[in-house]
Batch of 2 targets.
Target 1
Amino acid sequence: MNQMDIVNLLIPHDRKMPAKMEGHGYAPSNIALAKYWGKRNKTLNLPITDSLSISLFDKGTSTSIEASPYTHDMVILNDREIDSDTLFAQRISHLLNLFRPDPSFYFKITTINNIPSAAGLASSASGFAALILALNDFFQWELDDKSLSILARLGSGSASRSLWHGFVEWHAGVSEDGMDSYAEKLPYQWPSLRLGILIISNREKNITSREGMNRSQQTSPFYSAWPTQVAQTMEKLHTAIKTKDIELLGSAAEQNALAMHATMLTSSPAFCYWQTETLSQIQKIWQIRNEGVPLYFTEDAGPNLKLLFTDEISDIVRSEFRDVEIIAPFHLS
Ligand code: PMV
């Protein structure tokens, strides 16, 4: 099975021509509380484990799509045209290859991203999810959520979780074609939950998450413990979300993130997304917690931290971390 086979399975044969002049989509970024780290199939981005995320509500990507006036795809990110040689533009064109009505058809993609790109803030997740939603609108596929999630996964694994607000679970699935590997919104609200974005650096990372997870999976002696770790995290998260238990949610998410970073440190060659400042902020969080304040963090494939807490301690968080951006994921949903 390759990506084209999956597209042929999902998209109706009579929906291969654009049905409108322009298509649009918005997708929120998402932060995994139980991480996706390792694949059972690299072509289809099929994960080894389930994962669970919280979406960042109004932090995300808006994308418009139309026919390109040129004989190449155009990608405009935050008002700047991206050079077609960059990895970013190539990944988009690679996904678009699956949907061209004919080989001489090129797309113009205009995308606005209000989160820092490639700094571990999951911009590829919202980026590919918004692109699939814009394509769904452009071609009027009228696909269901499950199919959209599967298509978004072909662009980037974590994009399968970026189609909804709130808590989202991605089922790893077992089938070879990945038709059972898709994400779903969980039916729980937690209005007082807060995420704090602590930007340590906006610089592009040297190792993509794609490369990093492959290296961990292939070379870390700790990787064999990872699937059990995630299964335990998933169980704790389900209980925490149902009972609105921030201590359980925070400690489970924090331990899961640290276990993922442990697989990186023990890879060969070893790699590390942390910067000095990342560690000093982690120690500060631990110190605040030792004083009885329920503050936790998670960290993806980048140096930035995402604080996890509830609104009762928002004032403490604001005074301790002056540059923190606080997000209320259940603001309007
Ligand atoms: O979807 P990718 O290939 O960008 O990988 C995402 C990996 C993490 O952000 C570290 C974890 C996750 O589940 O989002």
Target 2
Amino acid sequence: MRDLSRPQSLVAINTATVKQLTLREAVECLVAAGITGIAPWRDRIAECGVAEAARLLRGNGMRVTGLCRAGFFTGEGRAGLAAALDENHRALDEAAAIGAQSLVLVVGGLPAHSRDLAGAREIAAEGIAALLPHARQAGVTLALEPLHPMYAADRACLNTMKQANDLCDTLGAGVAIAVDLYHVWWDPDLEREIARAGRSPGRLLAFHLCDWLVPTTDLLLDRGMMGDGVIDIPRIRGWMEAAGYEGLLEVEIFSAGNWWRRPGEEVVRVALERIATVC
Ligand code: ZN
């Protein structure tokens, strides 16, 4: 396992973790903390414009792990796939413009008024496949993010590492997986599926850190800081690194009631401390 006693060079901060900051403020905060990894959300990019965001990120030597996020292929069913793809193509161009390693895909849940979960999964797979030639040409990997099954109806019908591995096997080069502790920690097949992903070079593309609080008061916006919850983070990090993961440890904490109310500098400082001591 990698030594995390001085974690700055191994860490990325997802801008959703410091939602209280603009992109410029977030970059300044990270530079001050000695961190060069960042995963910006599209709304933060849109606020300052893609060209300015690209200058800001490049000018400060930031390593952009992924642009968050695109996908949502399924919401209007197959009839809406073309429109969803238009938006995804724009997101891919943005990702390329800011030098992002990947575009993170949350694939979408059930179409409106539908109970056809298997059909939704087919549409999602079609959408990813349709986006793939553009992604390969742009040099931006599509990072499939399995989401916790509690989001299957409204956010993502891609819910397990096994599903993500199966999709990657089918689609080939240009797709990989973003492993987010919040979404996969409960999965009894997690160790096996991480090891399986590790057998395909580059497939384990991103590793999102947070913790699962007990009780969780909001299933979207009450993620915990590492160490404050029940996820055995060192164990899962061990599985990732045994499978060959060498990428950044990306802190992604949606926390409307706690961390978003604190100064961004404090959030980043505590995240670094926790990575060094509990991850
Ligand atoms: Zn994530």
